[in-house]
Design a protein that fits this description.
By secondary structure, the chain is α/β, with parallel strands linked by helices. The protein has two domains: 181 residues, Spore Coat Polysaccharide Biosynthesis Protein SpsA, Chain A; 71 residues, no CATH class. 39% of the residues lie in helices and 18% in strands. The protein has ten helices and nine strands. The strands form two sheets. The chain has a seven-stranded mixed β-sheet, sandwiched between helices. The protein has a two-stranded antiparallel ribbon with strand order 5-9. Strand 2, helix 2 and strand 3 form a beta-alpha-beta unit. The radius of gyration is 19 Å and the shape is globular. The chain starts with a strand and ends with a helix.
């Protein structure tokens, strides 16, 4: 089994060394670690290159766009730069890791041992991650799924979720396991808008009752702003490209499931 690692970073000089150290101490060593510096204005690249003698490491530089692309569709660009480079070599699994993230030394080994033929994308777990989901950072993905995506993530708001949804379309399941993922960034440092999340589910073809349900769940958790932002993002967004086959599959399946539930209540 061979695996590669993809890390995208912008102004992460405080955390990138800890992230790479965690990879160096893995009980199963990566074939290659690709760090894409997304236009950092600090010494992120220099801190990463310090590990070039300890890890098989390639640092790529994405042009500075003058702002952080987090939560926007532009975040697909640095990932695609890394995936383009990785498409030239052979590997079995891809580990996507946040630059402000650390993992225990047996993280990859435990996930590899847990990877059954039915699973396509899996991860460890941090607070709020359910068992039937693979966390974005720390996600361990089969090569076949990345190939199905054309060795690139879609350049729209669903860039992050495309991996797990494509895996589902291919007949794979997704899961998280009780292996810790550590966020190195102090709580509250990065404010997040969920408007992009609403736009993302629109890009993924989510049927509108499912989006209302997501908002109701946010309300029940005492997060009314999140609920409103998801609804605003979904109902105001107009996708510029047609749904890919895996997103069309999600839309058709959700529509069918909703109609079946309604028929149980109101037969017709």
């Amino acid at each position: 089994m061979t695996y590669v690692v993809l890390i995208c970073a912008r102004n992460e000089e405080k955390y990138i060394a800890s992230c790479l150290s965690a990879l160096y101490f893995q009980t199963m060593n990566p074939e290659l670690v690709v760090v894409v510096d997304d236009g950092s204005q600090d010494e992120t690249t220099q801190r990463a290159q310090e590990f070039s003698e300890r890890l098989s490491l390639k640092v790529l530089r994405n042009p500075d766009r003058g702002f952080s692309a987090v939560t926007t569709y532009l975040m697909a660009d640095p990932y695609n730069l890394g995936l383009e480079y990785l498409s030239k070599i052979e590997w079995d699994f891809l580990l996507i890791l946040g630059a402000d993230t650390s993992i225990p030394p047996n993280y990859v080994e435990k996930l590899y041992m847990a990877m059954t033929p039915q699973l396509g994308a899996i991860s460890g777990r941090y607070s709020g991650i359910p068992e039937n989901y693979a966390a974005a950072t720390g996600r361990f993905i089969r090569r076949s799924i990345i190939k199905k995506l054309g060795d690139r993530l879609p350049r729209n708001y669903s860039w992050e979720s495309s991996v797990t949804h494509c895996a589902e379309y291919m007949g794979y399941e997704k899961r998280s396991f009780p292996v810790p993922i550590y966020n190195l960034r102090p709580p509250g440092q990065r404010k997040r808008s969920y408007v992009g999340a609403g736009r993302a589910v629109k890009e993924l073809g989510y049927y509108w009752p499912n989006v209302l349900n997501k908002s109701l769940i946010a309300l029940k958790k005492g997060k009314p702003l999140m609920a409103l932002q998801i609804l605003y993002g979904y109902f105001t967004h107009k996708p510029q490209t047609p749904l890919p086959e895996w997103a069309q599959y999600i839309k058709e399946r959700q529509t069918k499931a909703f109609k079946q539930k309604i028929r149980r209540i109101i037969p017709w």
